[in-house]
Amino acid sequence: MQRVGVFVCWCGSNIAGTVDVAAVAEALKNEPGVVFSTDYQYMCSQAGQDIIKNAIAEHNLTGIVVCSCSPRMHEATFRKTAAAAGLNPYMVEIANIREQCSWVHKDMTTGTEKAIILGKAAVAKVNLNTPLTPGESPVTKRALVIGGGIAGIQTALDIADAGFPVDIVETKPTIGGKMAQLDKTFPTLDCAACILTPKMVDVAQNEKIRIFSYSEVEEVGGFVGNFDVKIKKKARYVKEDICTGCGACVDKCPMKKNPNEFNLGMDNRPAIYIPFAQAVPKVATIDPNACNMLKNGKCGLCARVCAAGAIDYTQKDEIIEEKYGAIVVATGFNPISMEKFDEFAYNQSKDVITSLEFERLTNAAGPTAGHLERPSDGKSPKTIVFVQCVGSRCDACSEKGKEYCSKICCMYTAKHAMLTRDKYPDTDVYVFYIDVRTPGKNFDEFYRRAVEEFGVKYIKGMVGKVTPEGDKLKVQASDLLSNKQLHIDADLVVLAAAIEPDKSARPLATMLTASMDTNDFFTEAHPKLRPVESPTAGVFLSGACQGPKDIPETVSQAGAAASKVIGLLAKDKLTGNPCVAHSNELMCNGCSSCERVCPYGAITYEDKEFRMPNRTTKIRRVASVNPAVCQGCGACTVACPSGAMDLKGFANSQIIAEVDAICK
Amino acid sequence: MQVKEYKPLIVAFCCNWCSYAGADLAGNNRLNYPADVKIIRVPCSCRVNPMFILRAFQRGADGVIICGCHPGDCHYTSGNYYTRRRMAALFSMLDFLGIEKERTRVEWVSAAEGAKFAATMNEFAQTVASLGENKRLEDLRCKK
Ligand SMILES: Cc1cc2nc3c(=O)[nH]c(=O)nc-3n(C[C@H](O)[C@H](O)[C@H](O)COP(=O)(O)OP(=O)(O)OC[C@H]3O[C@@H](n4cnc5c(N)ncnc54)[C@H](O)[C@@H]3O)c2cc1C
Ligand code: SF4
Ligand code: SF4
Ligand code: FES
Question: What whole-number distance in Å separates Cα of residue A368 and Cα of residue A378?
Answer without folding.
Answer: 9
